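stuck on this one:
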Amino acid sequence: MAASNIRKKKHYLYSSIVEAQYHGHSFLLKLVFVSNRGNKNKYLVLATTQTKLRPEEIIQLYGRRWQIETYFKTSKQYLTLDKSQVQSYDGQCGYIAVTAITYDLLAWQERQNTDDKTIGDLFYLMNESLPDIKFVDALVYLISELKELKQTSFEKIDEAIDDFISQLPRCIQIALKQII
């Protein structure tokens, strides 16, 4: 297609609707040909039965789907999301939340680095640099820090909260200001 006379669109090469057959059933498929960023002579073909969608919408939906797929693969492979033995609903929600936060931190770290480390590489590097501490020691440290925080004035707490909120994305800041 790269050498053809078909005019390329901005976000995709070509889009068409075809009739497909599977086990004797016939149905329409919309195909969108997207150029591969790494190699302009190769392309990806995205297919959907939602023939009324514009090619840009199909590309956007596949992009979202791909992000979700990579999140779950990474969460299961490196962050042991599928190995949890927590029995309570609240515990499972907490475990999933901690896993999501860990993934977000790793993804952020990956974006900050200019080298070619993957999220898996970063996971192993971060685990190597963190010492193993007992749960009781971590809990004692957390409680002592909370006691120190309790002793500080409410003004400093408000200042810390305001500083934290100012670092969040704008849409989250607006939502929090409506709640607070």
